[in-house]
Amino acid sequence: MDEMKTLQEDLLKQVGQASSLADLDALRVSVLGKKGLITEKMKTLGQMAPEERKAAGQAFNTLKDAVADAIAAKKEALEDAEINARLAAEAVDVTLPVRPETQGRIHPLYQTYDEVVAVFGQMGFAVAEGPDIEDDFHNFSALNMPKNHPARQMQDTFYLQKGEENGEKYVLRTQTSAVQIRFMENNRPPVRIIVPGRTYRCDYDATHAPMFHQIEGLIVDTETNMAHLKGCLAEFVRTFFELDDVPVRFRPSFFPFTEPSAEMDIGCSRANGELKIGNGGDWLEILGCGMVHPNVLRACGIDPDVYQGFAFGIGLDRLAMLKYAIPDLRTFFESDLRWMKHYGFVPLDVPSTGSGLSMTGGNKR
Ligand code: DAH
């Protein structure tokens, strides 16, 4: 029986020393497995005399239970240790400093672009686009500006040296109005689009750059009239400038592709040399608009006796300058990081008419 005691102590010691689950399992197999130490000992019971067998059987069982219990307890302890080690290794140190503030900024022009698209988008306008390099037909002729039309001279056009279409040089488009034609050539009314994009004219001072941006608007349907035009644009400026009261007025004007044509002014004040949009007794021109000229519809194969439409063109850069009080247009394109930090917007604060255009809670800048 001493022998059994020593064996048990030895086996329990081995169990206690097992340092991994794999070691412990190997030990279990070598002791309790089919050919294990204790299993082999049990097999010898058959050859024993009956009294001896009873005592030995009991002793073997006690040994077996003790070792099995010890292995089970050790297994649990090793598993716990393993989980704890994993938890410790995967722990996140919440005391680490937060990531540094996002460095990049959204350019105020593209902030404005997104805002305008959000406002018109909510009114049901889709966004259309066209090429920056245009042919004479789309940029001029189809917009009721035939060759030698004096209005062509108003737009200091960049002509491309290479390539021609129908004997006319290609141009850098002078107006997003060209996309009116491109869209109506490929889509039948009802049409309801805005066209944000780059435009080019040979001009350079504090309010003009050779590359600038416009947003064109076009609606064509069977019952579109001047009242729709007025309502739509009045609603736009109020939502865009985030003001309840922005008076608007329409002055007669001339554009070859609209008849009648108008320019829209918005209310402002210029008290103490500071320009403020809103009801201030003064006026500021903001966009050109009008009812689509029948010749434009005809150029796109649309019957002007059935369809009418209105169109408008807004200088996007000018909108950005007005809304965000940026005095010089040229600074938009100078890539000065200090300027971007000052006038830029935090990325991912995407403007929407629901969550706010330029504001979400606080100022996004
Ligand atoms: N294309 C004009 C320009 O660049 C702006 C404009 C005026 C567009 C009236 C329009 C419009 O669609 O109806 O000066």
Labels describing this entry:
BirA Bifunctional Protein, domain 2; alpha+beta; three-stranded antiparallel beta sheet; binds 3,4-dihydroxyphenylalanine; eight-stranded mixed beta sheet; 12 helices
Structure, explained:
This protein folds into 2 domains: 88 residues; 236 residues, Bira Bifunctional Protein, Domain 2 (BirA Bifunctional Protein, domain 2, 2-Layer Sandwich). Helices cover 40% and strands 22% of the residues. It is built from 12 helices and 13 strands. Strands 1, 5, 6, 7, 8, 9, 10 and 11 form an 8-stranded mixed sheet that branches. Strands 2-4-3 form a 3-stranded antiparallel sheet. A hairpin with a 6-residue loop joins strand 8 and strand 9. Helix 2 packs antiparallel against helix 4. The model has no long low-confidence stretch (mean pLDDT 91). 3,4-dihydroxyphenylalanine binds next to strand 10 and strand 11. 3,4-dihydroxyphenylalanine (DAH) binds next to strand 10 and strand 11.
